[in-house]
Amino acid sequence: MQRILAVIFFLAVFLNQSQAQCNSTNCVGPACRCMSTSSPGGLTKAQTPQLVFLAFDGAIATTNYDNYTFLLNKRINPNGCPIGMTFFVFHEYNDYNLTHSLYFKRQEIATHSMSHLTPAATWANKSVAEWTDEIGGIRDALSKFANIPKAEIRGARAPFLQSSGDATFTAMKNLGMFYDCSFPETSVNRTNPPIWPYTLDQGFQHECAIPPCPKGKFPGVWTVPMVALNRNGTICSMADACDKPNTLDETYQYLMDNFQRHYNTSKAPFGIYLTANAWFQDAEYRLQGYKKFLDALSTKDDVYIVPIARGLDWMKNPKPLAEVPNFFSCPTMTQTPCSSYSCYYEGDASPVGSRNMKSCVTCPDVYPWTGNPLGLP
Ligand SMILES: *[C@@H]1O[C@H](CO)[C@@H](O)[C@H](O)[C@H]1NC(C)=O
Ligand SMILES: *[C@@H]1O[C@H](CO)[C@@H](O)[C@H](O)[C@H]1NC(C)=O
Ligand SMILES: *[C@@H]1O[C@H](CO)[C@@H](O)[C@H](O)[C@H]1NC(C)=O
Ligand SMILES: *[C@@H]1O[C@H](CO)[C@@H](O)[C@H](O)[C@H]1NC(C)=O
Ligand SMILES: *[C@@H]1O[C@H](CO)[C@@H](O)[C@H](O)[C@H]1NC(C)=O
Ligand SMILES: *[C@@H]1O[C@H](CO)[C@@H](O)[C@H](O)[C@H]1NC(C)=O
Ligand SMILES: *[C@@H]1O[C@H](CO)[C@@H](O)[C@H](O)[C@H]1NC(C)=O
User: Which residues form the domain of 55?
Assistant: First the structure.
């Protein structure tokens, strides 16, 4: 009996320690933050804005661009500035001209790898150099072909949410990336009340649903836990992976119920992570239900829909609600030029078969790909 208890005790200690412990004495905000359900800066719930992160994965293309602009539709936050969504972009079939347009509508453009190749499991074992080519590659391509300042591309999401743990974060750190948003959190305790984003100064602390997870410490790099949504008992970290709503009102209710779990408890940022093509295009009512949800948020003066990077900027400088309108002031942007080039590649000019590509600048010599993201000859 004693031996069994000892084994159980050992297992409990072992399992407990498989995730890093964060000691807040040695992790002082705003630069460092432990995993927590508390607002940053010691703010009360009443002083805390409810941030909402709306993110979409994959190529920006004519098939989804109109749906994005339909949702944006001059929608504003309580301070009168445009709302901001986040786009985790991969290269294949991405339209860099439309990407440019979204960026200059004040949307965040982030990385989702250059190649995004299947099978998903291969992403668990990539080296630092391979991750650098994938994350740095798509960042270079977005900067060049969509004419977006490189320093504004700050976020990363692993293909299929499958990272290689430390190798991925080492590459991110080397590239100066600000945050990752690839790791689900599904436990009841950390989704109700939901946990806030935190830094990896003292290591990765939430659920390791898709191993490997980072074991090292990555000071200054943030992780945004993908707090799971719940729909009638099914849970999902990508909103399109729960049972699909069958009507406009079910869609609205699904999003609203999950939003309220955040809004009524910890006020941790509420994220909706979607692959638009899978959810909107075979059912226009889901797009309408999503819009109805955004319309309902627009009636609340403490709810701000912001790009993930700007939400984390606020966490590093947590102003109370009264100062939030000023904090999330309308970004002033200097429009960079974008001409429309339609590029076409086949044969030796493309390592992956015939491809079209829309670019803001002159067509590169060969189809851009992992290892040659600028398509140099
Ligand atoms: C946290 O760190 C401080 C200072 O190093 C130490 O005194 C304290 O015991 C630590 N707390 C825990 C719970 O480990
Ligand atoms: C959404 O996208 C689909 C596919 O491109 C398109 O048929 C539909 O008209 C779009 N709806 C809106 C409101 O943008
Ligand atoms: C890839 O990584 C996973 C998870 O760390 C591991 O279980 C697997 O053995 C690795 N595969 C190869 C071929 O190295
Ligand atoms: C969840 O929280 C409760 C109350 O704090 C605690 O008793 C329980 O052990 C926690 N469960 C897990 C899996 O962490
Ligand atoms: C849950 O399922 C019931 C029955 O299928 C449905 O009427 C209800 O709208 C669903 N709830 C949500 C939030 O979709
Ligand atoms: C949140 O609070 C609202 C208003 O008090 C209530 O109607 C709703 O049921 C609550 N939802 C959750 C998920 O707690
Ligand atoms: C580039 O995007 C703009 C929208 O911002 C559109 O008006 C234009 O037709 C696009 N050009 C091409 C070649 O797709």
Answer: 50-327
